[in-house]
Amino acid sequence: MRNVLFIAPIVKSRNKGGIMKIAEFLNLENSKKLLKGKDIKLEFFNSHFLNQTNNSDGKILLENFKQALSYFSRLKKRIKDDNFSLIHVNTSFGLPLLKDLLIISILRYKTSKPVIFQIHFSGVTETFSHIVVVRKIQFYLLNRLNAIILLSNNFKKEMVSLGFPNQKLEVLYNFHPFMEEKEKKDIGDLKKLNLLFMGSIDNRKGILDLLESLKGINIEYELYIAGNFASTEIEIKCKKIIEENKLVVKFIGYVSGEDKDNILKKTHILILPSYAEGFPMVIPEAMAYGCAVLATKIAGIPEIVIDDGNGKLFEPGDTKKIRADLEYLYNNLKVLKQFMNNSFVYSKKFNLPSYIDNLSSIYNNQI
């Protein structure tokens, strides 16, 4: 059995982003069985051992320095044992990416085992520092790794254009964790669209654009917003727009388990108007429940949301396009039903067994 040291933030007290969700899903029994069939065992190493406040990631704060020192000292001790086959580091963008690169670069001299970095963000401009010197350091340290896992083919093309060796770059799409196939939705003679926004409620996710697009919209709808507010300021702005324009919106907070299952079952359209993303896990999850998707044309999203296939794509901030797409689908239920059916079919490409197959193939190339 090959033991992989799988480094990721595993934090119970904060909103769970893509990295934490993947770590959580890979630690479930179904995943362990699939990995065992590939002769692989993941040893989870928590890179965020100390408690942190919400929305502190990527900021120059004392608590982050303490976190980094704790991460370094614990990992140094673990690597010293050297009883693993490979190190798989899950990282994001900006300062957190630089921190992970520096820590691993210092400690990798204590082991001869290969190191893989998986970047859970997409796009060179969004992922790497805007400071030229810092960006050069990030590129230099990345090039010294054995392999780099990216979330989309588009991101891979960008990296190759910057001089990264094609053979060092791997693409691994995110997945939905459902082992059993969901039932197709039958919308029948639909009178009201159930819309869903799921994620951190903040400006980067485009929540204000979504609410703006609903002003004066000529459809019957109900928008469910699942997630926690990133700040009091954004909460006040959202509720002001809703109240002043009498929007039909229901906040349901962060959902998981059966609550998440229930909301996805009754959702017709998932809307993700983000300005920056990697490969949002909520999209394949919603697709598995037969939801059509309206999303921004950024990062890895166009590789899973096919315009006029299983949804509609738009530019960030284009509230008129969101409104027009919703009105079109409301008035053309045959098209909406086709989008929903296509999502259901496409979702099989992004299931857990496929993810495990692709992940084990990447490991096999390095071990």
What descriptors fit this protein?
367 residues, alpha/beta, Rossmann fold, 2 domains, six-stranded parallel β-sheet, 43% helix, globular
Spell out the blueprint of helices and strands:
Elements: E1 2-8, H1 18-26, H2 29-36, E2 40-46, H3 62-81, E3 86-91, H4 94-107, E4 115-119, H5 124-127, H6 132-143, E5 147-150, H7 153-161, E6 169-171, E7 193-198, H8 207-213, E8 221-226, H9 232-245, E9 249-251, H10 257-266, E10 269-272, H11 282-288, E11 292-296, E12 311-314, H12 319-331, H13 333-346, H14 352-366
Parallel strand pairs: 1-2, 1-3, 3-4, 4-5, 5-6, 7-8, 7-10, 8-9, 10-11, 11-12
Tell me what the structure shows.
- This protein is α/β, with parallel strands linked by helices and 367 residues long.
- It has 2 domains: 190 residues, Rossmann fold, CATH 3.40.50.2000; 157 residues, Rossmann fold (3-Layer(aba) Sandwich), CATH 3.40.50.
- It is built from 14 helices and 12 strands.
- Helix 3 packs parallel to helix 4.
